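Is this the right way to post C-alpha coordinates for a design question? Let me know if I should format differently. Anyway, here goes:
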Protein backbone atom coordinates (compact mmCIF):
# COMPACT_ATOMS: atom_id res chain seq x y z
CA UNK A 1 0.00 0.00 0.00
CA UNK A 2 1.45 3.43 -0.89
CA UNK A 3 1.68 6.17 1.74
CA UNK A 4 -1.16 8.24 0.24
CA UNK A 5 -3.55 5.28 0.51
CA UNK A 6 -2.51 4.48 4.05
CA UNK A 7 -3.01 8.13 5.11
CA UNK A 8 -6.43 8.25 3.38
CA UNK A 9 -7.47 5.05 5.19
CA UNK A 10 -6.27 6.34 8.56
CA UNK A 11 -8.20 9.56 8.10
CA UNK A 12 -11.36 7.78 7.03
CA UNK A 13 -11.12 5.68 10.19
CA UNK A 14 -10.44 8.75 12.33
CA UNK A 15 -13.46 10.60 10.95
CA UNK A 16 -15.55 7.43 11.22
CA UNK A 17 -14.88 7.41 14.97
CA UNK A 18 -16.47 10.85 15.41
CA UNK A 19 -20.13 10.16 16.11
CA UNK A 20 -22.97 11.46 18.27
CA UNK A 21 -24.07 7.91 18.95
CA UNK A 22 -21.87 5.47 20.84
CA UNK A 23 -23.35 2.43 19.08
CA UNK A 24 -23.03 3.56 15.49
CA UNK A 25 -21.83 6.34 13.18
CA UNK A 26 -24.21 9.27 13.25
CA UNK A 27 -23.00 12.78 12.47
CA UNK A 28 -25.95 15.03 11.76
CA UNK A 29 -25.46 18.63 10.77
CA UNK A 30 -24.51 21.05 13.56
CA UNK A 31 -24.12 18.49 16.35
CA UNK A 32 -21.16 18.11 18.72
CA UNK A 33 -19.54 15.42 16.63
CA UNK A 34 -20.11 17.45 13.46
CA UNK A 35 -18.13 20.32 14.98
CA UNK A 36 -15.42 17.95 16.12
CA UNK A 37 -15.10 16.59 12.57
CA UNK A 38 -14.88 20.16 11.28
CA UNK A 39 -11.82 20.83 13.46
CA UNK A 40 -10.11 17.69 12.24
CA UNK A 41 -10.71 18.60 8.60
CA UNK A 42 -9.34 22.10 9.13
CA UNK A 43 -6.20 20.62 10.65
CA UNK A 44 -5.68 18.17 7.77
CA UNK A 45 -6.21 20.89 5.18
CA UNK A 46 -3.67 23.16 6.87
CA UNK A 47 -1.20 20.25 7.05
CA UNK A 48 -1.64 19.78 3.31
CA UNK A 49 -0.45 23.35 2.81
CA UNK A 50 -3.82 24.97 2.13
CA UNK A 51 -5.20 28.29 3.37
CA UNK A 52 -8.23 27.31 5.42
CA UNK A 53 -11.51 28.92 6.40
CA UNK A 54 -15.06 28.11 7.46
CA UNK A 55 -18.34 29.89 6.73
CA UNK A 56 -21.74 30.58 8.25
CA UNK A 57 -23.15 27.18 7.23
CA UNK A 58 -20.11 25.34 8.59
CA UNK A 59 -18.39 24.36 5.33
CA UNK A 60 -14.69 23.66 5.76
CA UNK A 61 -12.67 25.17 2.95
CA UNK A 62 -9.05 24.89 1.90
CA UNK A 63 -7.36 26.49 -1.08
CA UNK A 64 -4.02 26.34 -2.86
CA UNK A 65 -3.83 29.68 -4.60
CA UNK A 66 -2.39 30.26 -8.03
CA UNK A 67 -0.02 33.22 -8.24
CA UNK A 68 -2.05 34.43 -11.22
CA UNK A 69 -4.64 36.82 -9.72
CA UNK A 70 -6.99 36.24 -12.69
CA UNK A 71 -6.84 32.49 -12.38
CA UNK A 72 -10.09 30.53 -12.42
CA UNK A 73 -11.31 28.25 -9.65
CA UNK A 74 -11.41 24.47 -9.54
CA UNK A 75 -12.98 22.69 -6.57
CA UNK A 76 -12.86 19.13 -5.27
CA UNK A 77 -15.56 18.45 -2.72
CA UNK A 78 -17.92 16.20 -0.84
CA UNK A 79 -19.78 16.22 2.50
CA UNK A 80 -18.90 15.45 6.11
CA UNK A 81 -22.37 15.01 7.62
CA UNK A 82 -23.84 11.51 7.71
CA UNK A 83 -27.13 9.67 7.99
CA UNK A 84 -27.99 7.73 11.17
CA UNK A 85 -26.15 4.38 11.41
CA UNK A 86 -23.97 5.40 8.49
CA UNK A 87 -20.94 4.02 6.72
CA UNK A 88 -17.66 5.91 7.00
CA UNK A 89 -16.87 6.36 3.28
CA UNK A 90 -19.96 8.22 2.04
CA UNK A 91 -18.77 11.82 1.81
CA UNK A 92 -15.45 11.71 3.72
CA UNK A 93 -13.72 9.65 1.00
CA UNK A 94 -14.19 12.47 -1.54
CA UNK A 95 -12.97 15.14 0.89
CA UNK A 96 -9.96 13.16 2.06
CA UNK A 97 -8.98 12.30 -1.52
CA UNK A 98 -9.20 16.03 -2.28
CA UNK A 99 -6.93 16.90 0.66
CA UNK A 100 -4.43 14.25 -0.46
CA UNK A 101 -4.39 15.68 -4.00
CA UNK A 102 -3.82 19.20 -2.67
CA UNK A 103 -1.06 17.81 -0.45
CA UNK A 104 0.66 16.27 -3.49
CA UNK A 105 0.57 19.60 -5.32
CA UNK A 106 1.84 21.67 -2.41
CA UNK A 107 4.65 19.15 -1.83
CA UNK A 108 5.73 19.40 -5.47
CA UNK A 109 5.52 23.17 -5.26
CA UNK A 110 3.78 23.12 -8.64
CA UNK A 111 2.69 26.48 -9.96
CA UNK A 112 -1.05 26.03 -10.48
CA UNK A 113 -2.82 27.75 -13.38
CA UNK A 114 -6.05 27.75 -11.30
CA UNK A 115 -6.93 28.14 -7.63
CA UNK A 116 -7.41 24.62 -6.32
CA UNK A 117 -10.09 24.43 -3.62
CA UNK A 118 -11.08 21.51 -1.45
CA UNK A 119 -14.45 21.90 0.24
CA UNK A 120 -15.96 19.72 2.96
CA UNK A 121 -19.66 20.55 2.75
CA UNK A 122 -21.38 20.82 6.11
CA UNK A 123 -24.68 19.21 5.15
CA UNK A 124 -25.61 17.12 2.15
CA UNK A 125 -27.82 14.40 3.59
CA UNK A 126 -30.41 16.81 4.96
CA UNK A 127 -31.21 14.47 7.88
CA UNK A 128 -31.67 17.15 10.52
CA UNK A 129 -33.76 19.81 8.75
CA UNK A 130 -35.03 17.69 5.85
CA UNK A 131 -33.25 20.02 3.42
CA UNK A 132 -30.41 18.50 1.42
CA UNK A 133 -27.29 20.39 0.23
CA UNK A 134 -27.27 23.15 2.86
CA UNK A 135 -23.47 23.37 2.50
CA UNK A 136 -23.08 23.32 -1.28
CA UNK A 137 -26.09 25.59 -1.83
CA UNK A 138 -24.21 28.32 0.03
CA UNK A 139 -21.12 27.85 -2.15
CA UNK A 140 -23.31 27.99 -5.27
CA UNK A 141 -25.15 31.14 -4.09
CA UNK A 142 -28.41 29.21 -3.89
CA UNK A 143 -29.08 29.30 -0.17
CA UNK A 144 -32.80 29.94 0.33
CA UNK A 145 -33.34 32.33 3.26
CA UNK A 146 -36.71 30.69 4.01
CA UNK A 147 -34.78 27.66 5.18
CA UNK A 148 -33.57 29.63 8.21
CA UNK A 149 -37.00 29.26 9.82
CA UNK A 150 -36.93 25.47 9.54
CA UNK A 151 -36.73 23.50 12.76
CA UNK A 152 -35.35 20.08 13.55
CA UNK A 153 -37.42 17.42 15.35
CA UNK A 154 -36.72 19.15 18.67
CA UNK A 155 -37.82 22.63 17.61
CA UNK A 156 -34.25 23.95 17.19
CA UNK A 157 -34.17 26.34 14.25
CA UNK A 158 -31.58 26.43 11.51
CA UNK A 159 -30.99 30.16 12.05
CA UNK A 160 -30.25 29.56 15.75
CA UNK A 161 -27.77 26.86 14.84
CA UNK A 162 -26.07 28.98 12.18
CA UNK A 163 -25.76 32.04 14.43
CA UNK A 164 -22.99 30.17 16.23
CA UNK A 165 -20.89 30.13 13.04
CA UNK A 166 -18.90 33.03 11.69
CA UNK A 167 -20.63 35.19 9.11
CA UNK A 168 -23.66 37.32 8.44
CA UNK A 169 -27.13 36.23 7.27
CA UNK A 170 -27.45 39.44 5.24
CA UNK A 171 -24.62 38.46 2.94
CA UNK A 172 -25.55 34.83 2.73
CA UNK A 173 -25.60 34.62 -1.06
CA UNK A 174 -22.86 37.17 -1.60
CA UNK A 175 -19.10 36.72 -1.84
CA UNK A 176 -19.52 33.62 -3.91
CA UNK A 177 -17.30 32.74 -6.86
CA UNK A 178 -19.22 34.03 -9.93
CA UNK A 179 -20.06 31.42 -12.62
CA UNK A 180 -17.62 32.91 -15.16
CA UNK A 181 -14.72 32.39 -12.75
CA UNK A 182 -15.30 28.67 -12.30
CA UNK A 183 -13.16 26.19 -14.19
CA UNK A 184 -14.94 23.20 -12.73
CA UNK A 185 -16.02 21.03 -9.85
CA UNK A 186 -15.01 17.42 -9.23
CA UNK A 187 -16.59 15.02 -6.75
CA UNK A 188 -15.15 11.56 -6.12
CA UNK A 189 -17.80 9.51 -4.30
CA UNK A 190 -18.65 5.88 -3.57
CA UNK A 191 -21.15 4.48 -6.05
CA UNK A 192 -23.75 3.45 -3.43
CA UNK A 193 -25.06 0.86 -5.87
CA UNK A 194 -24.04 -2.55 -7.28
CA UNK A 195 -23.00 -1.74 -10.88
CA UNK A 196 -19.24 -1.44 -10.31
CA UNK A 197 -19.21 -4.72 -8.39
CA UNK A 198 -21.14 -6.42 -11.20
CA UNK A 199 -18.77 -4.98 -13.78
CA UNK A 200 -15.77 -5.84 -11.60
CA UNK A 201 -14.20 -2.41 -11.92
CA UNK A 202 -12.79 -0.03 -9.29
CA UNK A 203 -14.01 3.31 -10.66
CA UNK A 204 -16.20 4.77 -13.40
CA UNK A 205 -17.42 7.95 -15.01
CA UNK A 206 -20.72 9.48 -13.97
CA UNK A 207 -22.93 10.75 -16.80
CA UNK A 208 -25.29 12.79 -14.63
CA UNK A 209 -27.53 12.89 -11.57
CA UNK A 210 -31.26 12.18 -11.38
CA UNK A 211 -33.80 14.92 -10.70
CA UNK A 212 -35.20 14.91 -7.17
CA UNK A 213 -38.22 16.38 -5.42
CA UNK A 214 -38.58 16.42 -1.63
CA UNK A 215 -42.00 17.13 -0.14
CA UNK A 216 -43.24 17.37 3.46
CA UNK A 217 -46.83 16.24 3.86
CA UNK A 218 -49.03 16.84 6.89
CA UNK A 219 -52.44 15.23 7.50
CA UNK A 220 -54.57 16.89 10.17
CA UNK A 221 -57.48 14.81 11.42
CA UNK A 222 -59.15 14.61 14.83
CA UNK A 223 -57.73 12.75 17.81
CA UNK A 224 -60.22 10.73 19.76
CA UNK A 225 -60.71 7.85 22.18
CA UNK A 226 -59.86 4.53 20.55
CA UNK A 227 -62.69 2.81 22.42
CA UNK A 228 -65.60 5.20 22.06
CA UNK A 229 -65.39 6.57 18.49
CA UNK A 230 -67.32 4.45 15.94
CA UNK A 231 -65.28 3.55 12.88
CA UNK A 232 -67.30 5.59 10.41
CA UNK A 233 -67.10 8.80 12.45
CA UNK A 234 -63.33 8.94 12.59
CA UNK A 235 -60.91 11.38 10.94
CA UNK A 236 -57.84 9.22 11.35
CA UNK A 237 -54.76 11.05 10.04
CA UNK A 238 -52.56 7.94 10.09
CA UNK A 239 -55.01 5.93 7.99
CA UNK A 240 -55.12 8.75 5.42
CA UNK A 241 -51.32 8.87 5.31
CA UNK A 242 -51.13 5.09 5.02
CA UNK A 243 -53.50 5.01 2.06
CA UNK A 244 -51.37 7.68 0.39
CA UNK A 245 -48.04 5.99 1.14
CA UNK A 246 -49.14 2.69 -0.41
CA UNK A 247 -50.22 4.71 -3.46
CA UNK A 248 -46.74 6.24 -3.61
CA UNK A 249 -45.17 2.78 -3.62
CA UNK A 250 -47.56 1.57 -6.32
CA UNK A 251 -46.78 4.48 -8.59
CA UNK A 252 -43.05 3.81 -8.15
CA UNK A 253 -43.52 0.13 -9.04
CA UNK A 254 -45.64 0.95 -12.09
CA UNK A 255 -42.89 3.25 -13.41
CA UNK A 256 -39.82 1.45 -12.11
CA UNK A 257 -37.80 2.05 -15.30
CA UNK A 258 -37.67 5.78 -14.64
CA UNK A 259 -38.87 6.47 -11.10
CA UNK A 260 -38.09 5.69 -7.46
CA UNK A 261 -40.42 6.80 -4.67
CA UNK A 262 -39.75 6.73 -0.92
CA UNK A 263 -41.46 7.79 2.28
CA UNK A 264 -38.62 7.47 4.79
CA UNK A 265 -39.67 9.56 7.75
CA UNK A 266 -42.99 9.72 9.58
CA UNK A 267 -44.26 11.29 12.77
CA UNK A 268 -47.64 10.49 14.29
CA UNK A 269 -49.33 12.38 17.12
CA UNK A 270 -50.11 11.73 19.88
CA UNK A 271 -48.49 8.34 19.06
CA UNK A 272 -50.15 6.33 21.81
CA UNK A 273 -51.97 3.04 21.41
CA UNK A 274 -55.42 4.05 22.65
CA UNK A 275 -55.87 7.37 20.81
CA UNK A 276 -56.89 7.87 17.19
CA UNK A 277 -53.96 9.65 15.47
CA UNK A 278 -54.88 13.29 14.91
CA UNK A 279 -51.77 14.61 13.21
CA UNK A 280 -49.35 12.85 10.91
CA UNK A 281 -46.47 14.34 8.97
CA UNK A 282 -44.10 12.49 6.66
CA UNK A 283 -41.51 12.97 3.99
CA UNK A 284 -41.80 12.12 0.30
CA UNK A 285 -38.73 11.62 -1.88
CA UNK A 286 -39.21 11.28 -5.66
CA UNK A 287 -36.39 10.79 -8.20
CA UNK A 288 -36.21 10.33 -11.95
CA UNK A 289 -33.68 11.01 -14.72
CA UNK A 290 -36.50 12.80 -16.58
CA UNK A 291 -37.41 16.30 -15.31
CA UNK A 292 -40.79 16.58 -17.05
CA UNK A 293 -41.85 13.12 -15.93
CA UNK A 294 -40.93 13.91 -12.33
CA UNK A 295 -42.92 17.12 -12.46
CA UNK A 296 -46.00 15.21 -13.70
CA UNK A 297 -45.61 12.46 -11.10
CA UNK A 298 -45.36 15.06 -8.33
CA UNK A 299 -48.61 16.66 -9.53
CA UNK A 300 -50.33 13.27 -9.80
CA UNK A 301 -49.40 12.47 -6.20
CA UNK A 302 -50.55 15.88 -5.02
CA UNK A 303 -54.01 15.34 -6.54
CA UNK A 304 -54.13 11.84 -5.10
CA UNK A 305 -53.38 13.26 -1.63
CA UNK A 306 -56.07 15.93 -2.06
CA UNK A 307 -58.63 13.27 -2.99
CA UNK A 308 -57.77 11.08 0.01
CA UNK A 309 -57.94 14.12 2.32
CA UNK A 310 -61.33 15.12 0.94
CA UNK A 311 -62.83 11.64 1.21
CA UNK A 312 -61.59 11.21 4.76
CA UNK A 313 -62.33 14.79 5.92
CA UNK A 314 -58.72 15.46 6.70
CA UNK A 315 -56.82 18.72 6.28
CA UNK A 316 -53.84 18.42 3.96
CA UNK A 317 -50.62 20.44 3.90
CA UNK A 318 -48.27 19.90 0.97
CA UNK A 319 -44.93 21.65 1.21
CA UNK A 320 -42.31 21.24 -1.50
CA UNK A 321 -39.01 21.38 0.36
CA UNK A 322 -36.67 20.98 -2.58
CA UNK A 323 -36.88 20.51 -6.29
CA UNK A 324 -33.65 19.77 -8.13
CA UNK A 325 -33.63 19.16 -11.87
CA UNK A 326 -31.39 16.44 -13.30
CA UNK A 327 -27.73 17.30 -13.86
CA UNK A 328 -25.53 16.39 -16.83
CA UNK A 329 -21.80 16.13 -16.20
CA UNK A 330 -19.62 18.39 -18.34
CA UNK A 331 -18.33 16.70 -21.53
CA UNK A 332 -14.84 18.20 -21.55
CA UNK A 333 -14.18 17.30 -17.93
CA UNK A 334 -15.64 13.86 -18.55
CA UNK A 335 -13.27 13.28 -21.48
CA UNK A 336 -10.27 14.35 -19.39
CA UNK A 337 -11.38 12.09 -16.53
CA UNK A 338 -11.90 9.19 -18.97
CA UNK A 339 -8.27 9.55 -20.14
CA UNK A 340 -7.06 9.31 -16.53
CA UNK A 341 -9.31 6.33 -15.80
CA UNK A 342 -7.90 4.47 -18.82
CA UNK A 343 -4.34 4.93 -17.48
CA UNK A 344 -5.01 3.26 -14.12
CA UNK A 345 -8.09 1.09 -14.57
CA UNK A 346 -8.66 -1.76 -17.05
CA UNK A 347 -12.22 -0.80 -17.85
CA UNK A 348 -13.99 2.42 -18.72
CA UNK A 349 -17.72 2.58 -18.14
CA UNK A 350 -20.16 5.40 -17.53
CA UNK A 351 -23.29 5.28 -15.37
CA UNK A 352 -25.92 7.78 -14.15
CA UNK A 353 -26.32 8.54 -10.44
CA UNK A 354 -29.67 7.88 -8.80
CA UNK A 355 -28.36 9.35 -5.56
CA UNK A 356 -28.10 13.12 -5.16
CA UNK A 357 -24.69 14.69 -4.58
CA UNK A 358 -23.26 18.15 -3.88
CA UNK A 359 -22.47 18.30 -7.61
CA UNK A 360 -26.22 19.00 -8.07
CA UNK A 361 -25.86 22.39 -6.36
CA UNK A 362 -22.46 23.19 -7.86
CA UNK A 363 -23.88 22.56 -11.36
CA UNK A 364 -25.72 25.88 -10.94
CA UNK A 365 -22.42 27.74 -11.21
CA UNK A 366 -19.72 25.38 -12.48
CA UNK A 367 -19.12 22.61 -15.01
CA UNK A 368 -19.27 19.46 -12.88
CA UNK A 369 -17.65 16.02 -13.02
CA UNK A 370 -17.88 12.95 -10.81
CA UNK A 371 -15.93 9.75 -10.29
CA UNK A 372 -17.69 6.76 -8.74
CA UNK A 373 -15.68 4.37 -6.59
CA UNK A 374 -16.77 0.77 -6.02
CA UNK A 375 -18.20 -0.05 -2.60
CA UNK A 376 -18.65 -3.66 -1.51
CA UNK A 377 -21.92 -5.18 -2.75
CA UNK A 378 -23.17 -1.67 -3.41
CA UNK A 379 -24.00 -1.28 0.28
CA UNK A 380 -24.18 2.28 1.58
CA UNK A 381 -25.93 4.32 4.32
CA UNK A 382 -25.06 1.32 6.44
CA UNK A 383 -22.13 0.39 8.74
CA UNK A 384 -21.28 -2.44 6.30
CA UNK A 385 -20.18 0.15 3.73
CA UNK A 386 -16.66 -0.78 2.56
CA UNK A 387 -14.12 0.32 -0.04
CA UNK A 388 -10.97 -1.76 -0.50
CA UNK A 389 -7.51 -0.15 -0.11
CA UNK A 390 -6.74 -1.18 -3.73
CA UNK A 391 -9.78 0.72 -5.02
CA UNK A 392 -8.86 3.74 -2.91
CA UNK A 393 -5.38 3.66 -4.42
CA UNK A 394 -6.84 3.54 -7.94
CA UNK A 395 -9.26 6.38 -7.17
CA UNK A 396 -6.40 8.53 -5.85
CA UNK A 397 -4.18 7.87 -8.89
CA UNK A 398 -7.04 8.59 -11.31
CA UNK A 399 -8.15 11.74 -9.46
CA UNK A 400 -4.64 13.12 -9.08
CA UNK A 401 -3.81 12.45 -12.73
CA UNK A 402 -7.06 14.14 -13.80
CA UNK A 403 -6.27 17.35 -11.89
CA UNK A 404 -2.58 17.20 -12.81
CA UNK A 405 -3.38 16.97 -16.55
CA UNK A 406 -5.82 19.89 -16.18
CA UNK A 407 -3.04 21.87 -14.46
CA UNK A 408 -0.58 21.09 -17.28
CA UNK A 409 -2.84 22.76 -19.83
CA UNK A 410 -2.14 26.11 -18.24
CA UNK A 411 -4.57 28.08 -20.36
CA UNK A 412 -7.23 29.18 -17.97
CA UNK A 413 -8.16 32.82 -17.70
ZN1 LIG B 1 -22.76 11.15 -0.04
Amino acid sequence: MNKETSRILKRIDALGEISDDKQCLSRFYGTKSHKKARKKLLKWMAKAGMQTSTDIVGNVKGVLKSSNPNAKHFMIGSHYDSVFNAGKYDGPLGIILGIEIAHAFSKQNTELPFHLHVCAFADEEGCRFNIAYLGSSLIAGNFNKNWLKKEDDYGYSLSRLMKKNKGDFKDINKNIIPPESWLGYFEPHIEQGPVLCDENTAVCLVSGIAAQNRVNITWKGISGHAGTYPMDLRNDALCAASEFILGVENLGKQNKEKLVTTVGKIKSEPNVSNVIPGLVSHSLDLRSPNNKFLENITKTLYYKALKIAEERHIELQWEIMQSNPSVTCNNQLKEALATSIKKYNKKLIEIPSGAGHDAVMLSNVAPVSMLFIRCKEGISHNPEEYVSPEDIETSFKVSFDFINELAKKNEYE
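Format looks fine. Someone answered above. Worth noting: Residues 79, 90-91, 124, 189 surround zinc ion (CB under 6 Å). The first strand starts at residue 51 and ends at 54.
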